Amino acid sequence: MGSQASRDPFHGYKDAAELCEHVITSLFSPGPSGNVGNTPPTSPVLGKEAPPPLGEFISYALYRTCLPVSITHPALLLLNRLKTRYPSARGTATSPHRLFLSSLMLSSKISMDKTFHNKAWQVVGQGLFSLREVNTMERELFALLGWNVVVRDEELTSWTKDVIEPYELARGATTDITPRKSMEDPKRRRDSISRRILSSFSTQSRSPSAEASRQRQANDATRKHRKTVRV
Question: Would you place residue 222 in the very low, low, confident or very high pLDDT band (cuts 50, 70, 90)?
Protein backbone atom coordinates (compact mmCIF):
# COMPACT_ATOMS: atom_id res chain seq x y z
CA MET A 1 0.00 0.00 0.00
CA GLY A 2 2.85 2.36 0.80
CA SER A 3 4.45 1.79 -2.61
CA GLN A 4 1.16 2.54 -4.37
CA ALA A 5 0.81 5.82 -2.47
CA SER A 6 4.37 6.79 -3.39
CA ARG A 7 3.59 6.24 -7.09
CA ASP A 8 0.52 8.48 -6.97
CA PRO A 9 1.64 11.78 -8.56
CA PHE A 10 -1.39 13.51 -7.00
CA HIS A 11 -0.81 12.24 -3.43
CA GLY A 12 -4.55 11.63 -2.99
CA TYR A 13 -5.50 15.19 -3.98
CA LYS A 14 -6.31 14.67 -7.64
CA ASP A 15 -9.86 16.08 -7.55
CA ALA A 16 -8.87 19.20 -5.62
CA ALA A 17 -5.79 19.74 -7.79
CA GLU A 18 -7.77 19.41 -11.02
CA LEU A 19 -10.32 21.91 -9.75
CA CYS A 20 -7.57 24.44 -8.94
CA GLU A 21 -5.90 23.80 -12.28
CA HIS A 22 -9.18 24.35 -14.11
CA VAL A 23 -9.81 27.68 -12.39
CA ILE A 24 -6.27 28.98 -12.87
CA THR A 25 -5.90 28.01 -16.52
CA SER A 26 -9.34 29.41 -17.29
CA LEU A 27 -8.30 32.76 -15.85
CA PHE A 28 -4.74 32.93 -17.15
CA SER A 29 -4.42 31.04 -20.41
CA PRO A 30 -0.94 31.07 -22.00
CA GLY A 31 -0.31 33.93 -24.38
CA PRO A 32 0.48 33.35 -28.08
CA SER A 33 4.08 32.28 -28.74
CA GLY A 34 4.89 32.56 -25.05
CA ASN A 35 4.15 36.28 -24.99
CA VAL A 36 4.27 37.37 -21.36
CA GLY A 37 2.48 40.68 -21.70
CA ASN A 38 1.67 42.13 -18.28
CA THR A 39 1.25 38.86 -16.44
CA PRO A 40 1.60 39.44 -12.69
CA PRO A 41 3.60 38.64 -10.62
CA THR A 42 6.84 39.12 -12.55
CA SER A 43 8.11 35.82 -13.94
CA PRO A 44 11.46 34.78 -12.44
CA VAL A 45 14.27 33.49 -14.60
CA LEU A 46 14.37 29.70 -14.32
CA GLY A 47 17.02 27.17 -15.19
CA LYS A 48 16.82 24.62 -17.97
CA GLU A 49 14.64 22.21 -15.98
CA ALA A 50 10.98 22.38 -17.00
CA PRO A 51 8.40 22.98 -14.26
CA PRO A 52 6.28 20.01 -13.14
CA PRO A 53 2.76 19.61 -14.53
CA LEU A 54 0.47 22.12 -12.88
CA GLY A 55 -1.90 19.52 -11.45
CA GLU A 56 0.94 17.61 -9.81
CA PHE A 57 2.47 20.84 -8.51
CA ILE A 58 -0.83 21.84 -6.92
CA SER A 59 -1.50 18.41 -5.44
CA TYR A 60 1.96 18.30 -3.89
CA ALA A 61 1.36 21.70 -2.29
CA LEU A 62 -1.98 20.54 -0.88
CA TYR A 63 -0.39 17.31 0.33
CA ARG A 64 2.46 19.04 2.13
CA THR A 65 0.24 21.68 3.75
CA CYS A 66 -3.03 19.71 4.23
CA LEU A 67 -4.90 23.00 3.87
CA PRO A 68 -8.71 22.57 3.63
CA VAL A 69 -11.04 24.11 1.04
CA SER A 70 -11.66 26.96 3.48
CA ILE A 71 -8.17 28.09 2.46
CA THR A 72 -7.87 26.87 -1.13
CA HIS A 73 -11.19 28.30 -2.34
CA PRO A 74 -10.43 31.84 -1.10
CA ALA A 75 -7.00 31.50 -2.73
CA LEU A 76 -8.68 30.84 -6.07
CA LEU A 77 -11.06 33.72 -5.48
CA LEU A 78 -8.07 36.03 -5.00
CA LEU A 79 -6.85 35.03 -8.44
CA ASN A 80 -10.27 35.87 -9.83
CA ARG A 81 -9.89 39.34 -8.31
CA LEU A 82 -6.47 39.61 -9.93
CA LYS A 83 -7.93 38.79 -13.33
CA THR A 84 -10.63 41.41 -12.80
CA ARG A 85 -7.98 44.04 -12.10
CA TYR A 86 -5.78 42.89 -15.01
CA PRO A 87 -8.15 41.45 -17.64
CA SER A 88 -5.46 41.33 -20.35
CA ALA A 89 -3.02 39.33 -18.24
CA ARG A 90 -1.92 36.09 -19.88
CA GLY A 91 0.04 33.12 -18.61
CA THR A 92 3.50 31.70 -19.28
CA ALA A 93 5.00 28.29 -18.55
CA THR A 94 5.35 29.02 -14.84
CA SER A 95 2.67 31.67 -14.31
CA PRO A 96 0.08 29.18 -13.00
CA HIS A 97 2.60 27.71 -10.56
CA ARG A 98 3.57 31.14 -9.24
CA LEU A 99 0.00 32.34 -9.03
CA PHE A 100 -1.23 29.30 -7.12
CA LEU A 101 1.65 29.27 -4.65
CA SER A 102 1.39 33.03 -4.02
CA SER A 103 -2.38 33.03 -3.57
CA LEU A 104 -2.27 29.99 -1.29
CA MET A 105 0.34 31.73 0.85
CA LEU A 106 -1.76 34.89 1.17
CA SER A 107 -4.98 32.99 1.84
CA SER A 108 -3.43 30.90 4.62
CA LYS A 109 -1.74 33.88 6.26
CA ILE A 110 -4.94 35.90 6.25
CA SER A 111 -7.16 33.07 7.49
CA MET A 112 -4.94 31.22 9.98
CA ASP A 113 -3.41 32.38 13.25
CA LYS A 114 -0.45 30.05 12.81
CA THR A 115 0.95 29.38 9.36
CA PHE A 116 4.21 28.50 7.64
CA HIS A 117 7.29 30.62 7.13
CA ASN A 118 8.28 31.44 3.57
CA LYS A 119 11.24 29.08 3.86
CA ALA A 120 8.73 26.28 4.28
CA TRP A 121 6.70 27.59 1.33
CA GLN A 122 9.82 27.24 -0.79
CA VAL A 123 9.81 23.54 0.10
CA VAL A 124 6.11 23.38 -0.75
CA GLY A 125 7.00 24.88 -4.14
CA GLN A 126 9.42 21.98 -4.73
CA GLY A 127 12.34 24.36 -5.05
CA LEU A 128 10.98 25.75 -8.30
CA PHE A 129 11.54 29.24 -6.90
CA SER A 130 14.25 30.54 -4.62
CA LEU A 131 13.38 31.95 -1.21
CA ARG A 132 13.99 35.45 -2.54
CA GLU A 133 11.57 34.81 -5.42
CA VAL A 134 8.96 33.43 -3.03
CA ASN A 135 9.19 36.59 -0.92
CA THR A 136 8.95 38.78 -4.02
CA MET A 137 5.98 36.91 -5.48
CA GLU A 138 4.05 37.25 -2.23
CA ARG A 139 4.67 40.99 -2.01
CA GLU A 140 3.85 41.53 -5.69
CA LEU A 141 0.56 39.66 -5.56
CA PHE A 142 -0.41 41.49 -2.37
CA ALA A 143 0.24 44.85 -4.05
CA LEU A 144 -1.39 43.90 -7.35
CA LEU A 145 -4.55 42.98 -5.47
CA GLY A 146 -4.57 46.49 -4.03
CA TRP A 147 -4.01 45.00 -0.55
CA ASN A 148 -7.56 43.67 -0.76
CA VAL A 149 -7.05 40.07 0.36
CA VAL A 150 -9.91 39.61 2.83
CA VAL A 151 -12.59 37.25 1.51
CA ARG A 152 -16.03 37.64 3.07
CA ASP A 153 -18.36 34.69 3.52
CA GLU A 154 -21.09 36.03 1.25
CA GLU A 155 -18.59 36.73 -1.51
CA LEU A 156 -17.11 33.25 -1.24
CA THR A 157 -20.57 31.66 -1.27
CA SER A 158 -21.55 33.55 -4.41
CA TRP A 159 -18.27 32.70 -6.15
CA THR A 160 -18.60 29.03 -5.22
CA LYS A 161 -22.08 28.86 -6.77
CA ASP A 162 -20.87 30.56 -9.95
CA VAL A 163 -17.61 28.65 -10.42
CA ILE A 164 -17.23 25.55 -8.24
CA GLU A 165 -20.71 24.09 -8.43
CA PRO A 166 -20.96 24.23 -12.26
CA TYR A 167 -17.55 22.59 -12.50
CA GLU A 168 -18.56 19.77 -10.16
CA LEU A 169 -21.86 19.27 -11.99
CA ALA A 170 -20.04 19.09 -15.30
CA ARG A 171 -17.73 16.42 -13.91
CA GLY A 172 -20.58 14.57 -12.26
CA ALA A 173 -18.92 14.97 -8.88
CA THR A 174 -20.90 13.51 -6.04
CA THR A 175 -18.38 13.63 -3.20
CA ASP A 176 -16.61 16.36 -1.31
CA ILE A 177 -13.18 17.13 -2.76
CA THR A 178 -11.75 17.74 0.72
CA PRO A 179 -9.48 14.83 1.77
CA ARG A 180 -10.60 13.30 5.05
CA LYS A 181 -7.24 13.95 6.70
CA SER A 182 -7.81 17.70 6.43
CA MET A 183 -10.62 17.39 8.96
CA GLU A 184 -8.23 16.56 11.82
CA ASP A 185 -7.94 18.79 14.84
CA PRO A 186 -6.52 22.05 13.41
CA LYS A 187 -3.80 22.52 16.02
CA ARG A 188 -2.60 18.93 15.84
CA ARG A 189 -2.66 19.08 12.04
CA ARG A 190 -0.66 22.31 11.87
CA ASP A 191 1.95 20.99 14.33
CA SER A 192 2.31 17.77 12.34
CA ILE A 193 2.56 19.65 9.06
CA SER A 194 5.19 22.02 10.39
CA ARG A 195 7.36 19.11 11.51
CA ARG A 196 6.95 17.38 8.14
CA ILE A 197 7.63 20.43 5.97
CA LEU A 198 10.65 21.57 7.93
CA SER A 199 12.12 18.08 8.33
CA SER A 200 14.51 18.84 5.48
CA PHE A 201 16.15 21.59 7.52
CA SER A 202 18.81 20.63 10.04
CA THR A 203 17.97 21.06 13.71
CA GLN A 204 20.28 21.27 16.66
CA SER A 205 19.86 18.67 19.38
CA ARG A 206 19.45 20.02 22.86
CA SER A 207 21.51 18.59 25.73
CA PRO A 208 21.43 19.47 29.43
CA SER A 209 23.42 22.60 30.13
CA ALA A 210 26.70 22.41 32.06
CA GLU A 211 25.16 24.51 34.84
CA ALA A 212 22.32 22.02 35.30
CA SER A 213 24.79 19.12 35.46
CA ARG A 214 26.90 20.87 38.08
CA GLN A 215 23.80 21.59 40.13
CA ARG A 216 22.77 17.91 40.11
CA GLN A 217 26.26 16.86 41.15
CA ALA A 218 26.22 19.33 44.03
CA ASN A 219 22.82 18.05 45.20
CA ASP A 220 24.06 14.44 45.10
CA ALA A 221 27.13 15.35 47.13
CA THR A 222 24.99 17.14 49.72
CA ARG A 223 22.71 14.13 50.13
CA LYS A 224 25.69 11.78 50.59
CA HIS A 225 27.19 14.09 53.19
CA ARG A 226 23.96 14.19 55.17
CA LYS A 227 23.79 10.38 55.22
CA THR A 228 27.36 10.20 56.50
CA VAL A 229 26.63 12.67 59.31
CA ARG A 230 23.62 10.63 60.48
CA VAL A 231 25.74 7.47 60.78
Answer: low
